[in-house]
Every structure is written in structure tokens, then in C-alpha cells.
## 1
Amino acid sequence: MASPGNIPQNEKSKSFDIVETYHQLLKEDPDLTMPVAAIEALIELLVQSRAVTVYETLDLVKTQSDYLKSRIPNSISLSAGTDLFQRYMISSLKPSSTGNFDTMRQHLLSNGRLFVSRAKAGREKIATYGRHFVRDGSVVLTHGGSRVVGALLGKAAEASKSGGNVRFKVIYVMNDARSSESKAVVSTLRAKGVPVATISEGAVGYAMGKVNLVIVGAEGVVENGGIISRLGTYQIALLAKAAGKPFYVAAESHKFVRLYPLGQYDLGIDQEVIVFKTDKEDLSSEEKKFAERTPEIEEKKEYFAPGMDMPKPNTAVDAVDFTPPALVSALITEEGVLTPSAVSEELISVWW
Amino acid sequence: MPSLQAGYAPNLGIFLKSLKTAPLESSIENLISLLKRRQIRNSRPCAIATAHLLLQVVAKFRWTDIGNLLERIQEVGQRLVEAQPREMVVGNIVRRVLGMIRDEAKEDRTEDASDSTSTSQLGSPRRERSESGSFRTEGGATSSSPLRFVSTDASTLSEASGDDVFGGRSQPTSRPPLLTSHTSYAVLNGVPVQQSMFNLLSATPTPSSTPPHTSSPHGKSTISASSLAQRIVITTRDLKAEVISGIEEIIDELDQVDDQIAAYAQEHIHSNEVILIHSSSLSVQKFLLKAAEKRRFTVIVAESYPNDHEATHAAVTGKVSPDVEGDEMSTETFLKPLSAAGITVILMTDATIFAIMSRVNKVILATHAVIANGGLIAAAGARIIAKAAKVHRTPVIVVSGVYKLSPEYPFEFESLIEYGDPGNIIGYGEGALVDHLEVDNPVYDYVPPDLVDLYITNLGAHAPSYLYRIVADHYKPEDINFHKPELQF
């Protein structure tokens, strides 16, 4: 049995590596979100495990979740999934609820596919809610490769085809570091008959005057209603606010994560975005420590045996930033259109 | 169908009187045309008329299960909303009634379940509506289902009933007898149902995410079918009385709402303050009068020419203009005018608002409707005031009954604004001028949430960002889009 603090690498789980499973799941299904992939990985873990008691199972799930989180450079989004999974198990086992351990376990094991399909259906639902934000003649600015936003704009485009008369245009902010993803999004939209203009990240402020609304996706929605999303979202939100344009976030409610960042450098993850350099390489170690990266947190050292690789910090390619709630007009979730302050309530209802 | 035997009803008072005697269907048509012709207008009269009409609908409709009743009210509500979509309170009242019926049914059901060993599981109502077709066939095919008894019961009853004008519409559907709210209290396979974020993992199929036929709505029932049917007939009667008293409570709330709001007045208005108000509103007037009982303060009134200035003058001086008549008058005329209550009143035109704002301590606005994002629809000119107040950092307080709070999310604010009679601005007598001009007279303004500091409702004071919570408390999610079936999930 794995005890907290140890690397769960005993003979039993040798054959099963949760990190590998997680990556595998994400690779197999490009439509899968990170939290759902984490949930799937944990279900897979339950299938493999021979834990029989409640405590043993909860403990196993907890250690493996922490282990998974420690091995992924940006664990914010997936931690929403692992937290939700653990809270679900715990609240199902409360004495006040009528559930018992075996039925709950059985339910989780047998319905893995159902959860995935629900998560995807949630996306459809968001698209159905969200497409009403896209009115005839409006210009939508978006960026990143969010599948929810893709579904939403696709739905709006379908509405125009089926006589709904929604002729909207999209301004897409290209990301040079991820040009293949950007191109894919743009070509999908163009294939649906939506006129798309691509601009560089430097042109957002210039383009904002032509924009009616901004819709972006999110990796995680934090407790105060702010979002954690692809690098560049924050500046778009600031520009939208300055121009008085509504800034909407489309995200499933399983991305709500219990985190309260106080600023950009308080996300609890390492990001190599700001790297100071001079021509001469030999900075003293003191200087290096000060200048090399944005502030970092203590690694979970206990999960790393001497020979193991530490996860690499996020580079600018997949770095994220934090958009504070004051810049968000509304969150479009499958539970409806929420104000940012509604997020904390949802989280409280799950955690307490 | 619309018969005019109830007579031509030009306002709320006559409509309410006619309700008691006129056949239901003609009352419905009557209210629809009154709404369309704007003979009943403004939030409160619309809300009162809707609540009274729904009371009649429930009282006169013979039903055996909640599903029928909900469907009936949705249908009536949809017609009313379509008649005047800008009077958002009509939809609000319909949603309140629907939500109240769902609660009553749920309560009833809980009592029912607690005295038997029944574990019967019902489909969620949202799914119910969207797939009612498939359910009907399903129910008919399952011979062991208790629903069959209900369905025969329902059809015999509706054949026998004479007082229901629903007539041709009533279908012998075999719906599950009672509907529960969106989160069922029931337990399926021993796994409890969870809150919204747990929907992803929960055991109960959510309406949108499961293929339609994975679970039967009938579940397993351990009590015999006939006894269940009998119980339903008995409980229906109790339920009807409960629903009717629930609607009466809503009507009472509409009567008392201004007094409840006024109870908070002394917490917000202090001595020697300068308050700016705009146009005429019963809520604001009562609010100020209540504060004036204890405090001396100054009120600057922006007259809101050209749509509401006469009523505003009347509120200040107590003189009622001759065209205000009927029911609305009865309460308003007996209110003390502001000047008589010892308040120093300064009347100004809307154009002077910015100039005077630096002297104002507080702005109190009335509303036409409040929307879920915390913004509001108010008499034209309200946005100028709110904006000017923002520039001067003057707090803006909005007084509004909870019944004006609408769960609809406004996607296009322009669509909420009504354009009124341009004749108010330039009379038709000035033909030469009218020929060369296009005259617009918007009646309402949209005030975005960031211009409002505080809402005072009959429930207390709230920040604009908290309004979503009150919306969630008052309306059930499945009722929010009841009038737009294409938005139902």
C-alpha cells in the first residue's frame, strides 16, 4: 500500500503509471480536456488497484493525484479534475448520504465513458448558450485553441446557415509559437463560411475598435472568478476593458479550480517566460537566482528519486497567465451564464 | 375564441374585475390584447395582472398530474410573453409560479415517499419536456407501469370536465405522475445525487448528456399501481389548494413590496442629504416618504420630459393629472406628495443633471426591469444620471422589487429598449417640422451593472454582482427559457 509521501512505485503499480495513462488519454482523444483526462486516469487507477477499504482507496487516489500533479509542468487545469474526483468520492461516502463504497466505486468504474461523453455534451451546451452572444453583424475576437470556443463559433455559424441569419466575422489572434494550432482553428472556421481575419498579437489594441465582443476559453477558472488561460489572454482582456468591449469566457464548470491567485506570479507553477540574459554567460549564482526566471515555488521534492527528471518549467509556448475577475464580463458555462462571483459559490458547494 | 362579453377593458382594474366572471380563454385573450395595446403597462400592473390570470388558470384547469399543469401554465405564459416581450415582469411572474408548483410537487412527493417504501425514480422535468413525445410512447408500451392508471384517469377526468376551456388541447398523455425538481432528491442505485459541479460524475443521468433511452423514467416501484393512482387523485386536490395559495402569496408580495423596500429607507438616507431622483416611481416615492418620517433632507427631482414629466410633477405636488385614472390612481393619489412630507424638493430638467451632480450625495433610481447581469432597464435618462454619478463618485442606489428581477440574459441591450410616441417630443400639429425630421422617443435606458453601487430590494441590500444569486433563489433553471422552446435543453 502506498503511503503519502512515498513515490508510488511499488510492485503493484509498476505496471500502471498514472502520468503515462494521462498523456495517453490526451493523445488518443484530442477533444478531451485536461480535467476530464485526469478523472479518466484516476478511474483507470481504480480499475488497476486492489484497494478494498475506503481509506486505502481514498489514500491511493490522493497520492496518485499529487504524483500526477507534480509531474505535469502546469497542473492547474488537471487539478480541477483530480479535486473534483476526490470530493465526489468523499461526499458520496458521507454518513448523511445513502451511498455506500461499493456502489460508488462500481458506478465510477463502469461509467468512465459516460463522464467523457457528458463533458463533451457540456461543451455542446455551452455552445448553445453562447451562440446567442454572437449577434448578426458582430465581430468576435478570439485567440488560442479552445475547443469550447471553437464549438461555440461553429454553432453560431450553423445558425446562420440554417436561416438564423447570423452573419458574424472573427478576428483571430495568431500565436507564432503555436502556428499549427492557430492555422487549424482558422481553417475550420473558414470552412464553415465564417470570414476570419488573422492578426498578430501586437495588433490586438489596433483591432479592438472593430470588435464587438471577445470570447476566449480557459484552462482553469479560479475561485474569485478570474481565469487561467493561454499567455496573452490577460492583455486582450485589459485591452477589451479599456475599449469597453465585453469579454466572455467559455469554460465547462469542471474547470473550476480551488486556487486563489493574487497575481500573475502566484499561480503555483513554474514558467520560464521572463528570462534575463546578458552577453556574458557567467552570472554569479546569486544574480542567477534573482534574474533567471519568474518567481518559483518549492518543488514537491519528495516525489522525485535522485535519478528522476524534474518536469520542465513552462516555456513561452505553453505558458499561461491569469486574468482577474474584474476584466471578465461573464462566464459561459454549461450551468448557464454566470458572473465571476458565482464561481466561488459553486466551489463552496462542492468543498463544504 | 376571444369573446368580448367581458366588455372592453381599458385598464388593470377593469381587467381584474372581469377575471372573476369572464371565461378563462377570453380573459387570456383580453390580457394579451391589453398588453399589446399597452393599456396595461409598467411593471407592477403587468405583474399583478399576470399573477391574477394565472390564479384563474390554476383554479379553472382540471388536472391530474403536475406535468399537465406546468405545461398549461407554460403555454399561457408563452402567449403573454410574446404579446409584450419588453414587459419582462410577465415572464418573471410565470417563472415564479412554475417554480412554486415544482417546489410544491417536490414537497408533496417527499412526503409521499417517506410514508412508503417507494423508490420510484422519475425523469427530470427538463428532459420531460424536450422528449415528451418519446416518453408518451414509452409509457404506453410498458403495461406494468403505474402511469397507465394515471393516463386513463386523466383522460376520463378531462372528458368529464366542463368548466375547462383547455378542451381540444388536453392530451391523454401518460406522463410520470409527478415531476421533481432538476436535482432529484431520490437515490438511484444507491448513489446520491450531487450539486451542480458533480453533475459530471453523478449517477443520475443529466438531461443533455445521456442518450434518450438509457434509463426508463418509470424506475421500480414497490407499491401497487392502483394504490399509487389513487394516492395521486387525493394529493392532486391538496396540491391545487397549495398552488393557489402559493400564487396568492405572490400577489401579496406584489402588494407589499414597496413597503418592504421602504423599511430600509432610514438606513440609507441621512439628515441633510441631497438626493437625486428621476421620473416618478411609487417605490422611490414610498422610500423617500418613509425616510422623511424621521429625517429632513433635500430631493432633486429630474422630471424626465417628455414621457413621464406629468406623473413626476404629480408625485411632487400631489396634483393628479386627469389622464391618470382607474386602479393605478387609487394607491398613488392617496400617497402624500413629497413636498407635503416636509422634504425640500427641487424640480429640474434632465439636461441639468451633470451640473447639479456635484452637489448630490446620493442618486436613487427606480427601474423598469433588472437583469441577471446586474444591469437594469429604467426610464430614459437614467443612464445619463448613472454616468454623471460615476464621474462624480456619487453612489447610485436602485430600488426595485424582486419581482422585477429577470433571469433572462440580455444579449442585445438595444432590443430591450422600447421606442414610444414621438408625438410627445414634437406634436403632430407642427406638420411642417414633422415633415423634415425624424423624431425618436426611446422610453427606456439600459444602465450597465458597473454604474450601480447598490440594489435595495424587498429582501435587503445587494451588490449588483450578487443578483445572480437572487435569480437562482427565485427561478428554477428549467423555467428560465420556458417561452423559447428552442433554448431548452
Note: The two ends of chain A are 29 Å apart (CA to CA).
## 2
Amino acid sequence: MEIKREDILHLASLSNFSLSEDEVTSLGKDLQDIIKYISQLDKLNTDEIEPTYQVFEMENVWREDEILPQDASREELLGLAQEEKEHQIKVPKVL
Amino acid sequence: MMKIANKKVSAERLVRDALEKAKHFSDYNIFTFLNEEGALKKAREIDEKIKRGEEVGRLAGVPYALKDNFLSLEGESTASAHILEGFTSPITATAVKKLEDEGAIMIGRTNMDAFAHGSSTENSYFGPTLNAFDKERVAGGSSGGSAVAVALDIVEFATGTDTGGSIRQPASFNGVYGLKPTYGCISRYGVVAMASSTDCVGFFTKTPEDMDLLMSITAGRDPKDMTTLPDYYNADTDTGSDDSRLVPARPSSRGSGTHSAPVVADGRESSDFRARVGVIKDFDNTSVNAEIRDALKSKIEFLKSRGHEIIELDMPSLKYALSVYYIIVPAEVASNLSRYDGVRYGLRSKDSSNLDKLYENTRSEGFMPENKRRIMIGNFVLSSGFYDAYFLKAAKARTLIVEEYAKAFSDCDFILSPVSPSPAFKLGEKVNDPVAMYLEDVMSVSLNLAGVPGLTIPVGKTKDGLPIGLQIVGPRRSDKRLIEFSKELRDE
């Protein structure tokens, strides 16, 4: 399939970043090449095959619902943010 | 590695030497952070303990290097990515804690492709690491810094992560041992996530014996990582998987003692274990460098001479493994990297007019081109209209790969194969051609998709003096047998 300019812009918007004009061109070409390569899979017959999403041997792991000591304190975690006010992380306005 | 235990040298001496060597080799761009103060402080503490006659750990005073995607309290844990610049972790990765509880001393954090996206360490925000044997060539990646730190003998060992070859390929490019364990063997708590269904923690060492020691220290269940297996490594219950659909480990065919060791053709005593070693016949051999093919052939002959059996394997789905990998992994990358938004930690873009702009600007500035490529591919293969054709198709193909490994390991104990199609390539040669770079991983990714372990072993050099590595692959939970068998392949 052909990747058009608007496809690249749409994927960038889904990815929550913007692209410079140079990036639109270079990433456009790269994505086209990569998609061409991975499309080789078309040749493999996968009818009647169940998908595999993980290769961990266990289906589910249960634990008691109890509060355990945590490695980091609330203050340490809040301290990682660039801006903090009254024990909350400060961000620019939403709208 | 046990230099401290016999007390002939102080921990402080070892750490000072390692730090000095790290500085001496600074032009290789191996470290993103040197832990001078912290390492020397720990070394003195260990020396004091020894002086007082107190018990010290199995790695007491051993200097090591930590890949930059492991969280620890010392230095900034950035995964060599701009978007994590300034991030000082308040927590310590479980693997790091286990090593340091045994007395290992981290002397520095090592350079890597940002978020482990790459096969050359050229995608690092801090610039490339140079190959230990040729400064015009790449270190391999993504754990390039760790591989070179061990190859140049700066440290005794280094940590790595392997999502599609990121330990095995740089190990092979720099002539050291590199292990990707069975999926779920070592805790990933405190390791920056790339692709959750394939990420593995592992190590670079100079010997199989050191690898065994590190595995015995770090393997096992971690309540903080629900994808860890119970400790099979130290339990010596090499009896295979509890899910028959996944690759079963064969019951150990290793003998119980040293009796019955037969004498082979050259008169040397062989170990009592006769392995059936698989060689994949339908790999496109023409794409593999001739000197690597020769190295493989010569090891096959060597194994035959030692009485091991060579079995040709038909694994027709493996040629699709790279396509499967570059669909599934970017999809998981797109999801895992959505957390980097500039709000809670790391980089925050300045002067954004609203919250949406803050996300967008931070991510636009903070990601490397390869991060953006993978996130976009991931969002492409997951988006409506393409999900069935790409992501679902790849997940089904993954089943075929898992089954093919299971079948292979019902016919053989190990598989011996190249790690990558070529030895270390030139800096800049592939970095602007993503498909050429991805093809570097063509022989390594299938193990991650199937969750099976693989160990890179150094087997010699090309005529230009570049290291050649081969990988031994085994069924799930066969890590200990893999390491043991690698001794059989060690250069005389």
C-alpha cells in the first residue's frame, strides 16, 4: 500500500507528536519501506491459527489485596515533576 | 570474578582501577554517567566489612556497568533518551538490588540506543559508542555500551536488556559472552519497558562461569513483577514448561556423574553429555557473511569430533520472524512509550499554551527519529482497518514460530546459529536506512518471539580482526544447560 502525506500526519497525531516538514518527508519514506518489508507476511498462510500475544507460561497470578510498603514516597514521586503545587503536579490549562 | 573473596586485593583498588580504565577509554563513549563517589564509598564499606571479618556477598567489590535503562538511585536513569533527561529514580530495579546485595559495585551507566530502539547504539541521545576492536565501527546495540565496557576489560560484567537481540548482537560484535535468558527468568521491575511480551534482562561476561554466577543470583520470582517465573535456575528442575503449547524443555539428558566419560577420536576425554545440536538448513545462507558461515561450519565439525550429533532442522516460518517482530514490537512500543508526556517526570517542553500542546511539544522534542518511527509503525499496525492485516496476522504467525521451536526441541537439545548476518559494520553505514538496520536482527528476534533463551559465545575473529559470535539456543528454562554447553564450545 502507498503511504500518503495525510497518512503520516494522521499517524503523528495518533502518536501525540508533531513533525517538521523534513521529518514528514524522511519518515514517510522510511514507513513506506518498513511497511513494504513487513507486508511479506501476506505470503504466509495463517488460516485456522490462533494468535499468540504473550509467551509467559502462566495464565493468571493472584495475590492478597493488601497494601505493602512502597519503594518511593509521595514526596519523592511528586518531586520528579517539573512543577508541583500543594502536593499536586501543576500543568498548563486544559483548554 | 572472585578476586575479593581471597582478599588479595581491596575493593577500593578494584573500583579505582575500573574508574581509571573507564576514563582512559572515554573516547569510546561507553558511559552516560560515572559513579565515582558512590562506587568508592561502597568499596570502602566492603573493605571495612572484610577487615572486621564480616560475611560479604558473592560479588563483593566486583565492579560492574549498568545499562542506562535500569533504574537505580545513582545518576540519571535516562535509557539514553532526551525525554528522560533529568530523571533521577527514587526506586532501584530488582535485578540491580540483587546484584548489589551480593556486593557488586556499579561504576557507571552505559550508553544504548534510546529506549533500546536500535542495533548499533547510534540512536542514543548521547551519540554512538565505538566498537572495542575498531573505532570506525559500531558497538552493536542496543546494549552497545555494556558490551564494550566488558570487552575493554573495564568491568567484570555488565547488565543488558534483550528485546530482539540487544544483548546477543553487541556481545558478538565485541567478542564477549551475552545471554538472553528465558522470558520471565529475571525480574524487569525497574527496567524501562520497550516491548513487554519480549523484553528480557540479561548479562555480558567474559566467561560462562561468571554468567552462571550472575544467573544464580538474579533468577527467580519477584512479587513486584508478575511476569517472573519461579526460580527454576537454582532449583535444578530442568523439566520444562507447564504449558504444553509453549516450547517444552526436554528432560535433562545430562549424566549424573563423571563416570562413563567416553574417549573420542582425538584421544581427549569428552564430557559424558552427548548433545543433539540442531542447525537450521533453510536460512538464507547467502545473506550471511562468508567468514561467519565458516566459523559455524568449523564449530559443527568440532562438535562432531567430540561425539555430538548434528541434526538438520527445517524451520520454514523463521524467515517471517523479522516481519512479525517489526509489527508486534512497535505495537507494544507505541503503547509503552505513551507514558512519556512531560507531566510526571523527565523532560517538559517549555511555554506550551495548553495541556495537549505540552504532550505534543514534549514528545516532538524528546524522542529520537527511531523512537518516532517505531511509535508510528505501532500505531499504524494497530489502527482500525489495518489491525487484522498486520497485528492479528503477526500474532498468528508468532504461534507458528513458537510451534516450530517446540518441534525443533523435540528433535534436538540446542540450536547453533549465527547471531547476525555480518560482523560489526561501519558507523553511519545503516543508520539512515531503517530496513537495512532491522535486517541486522534477522537471526536474533525469533527467540524473543518464542520466549526461548540464547547465549552468544565468542568463536574467533575475521581476517580483519573483528570478533565473530555464534548463538546457542535452547528450549525454555534450559538456561543453565546452555551455559554449561557453551564451555564445550570454548576455544581451546
Note: Residues 5-41 of chain A form one domain.
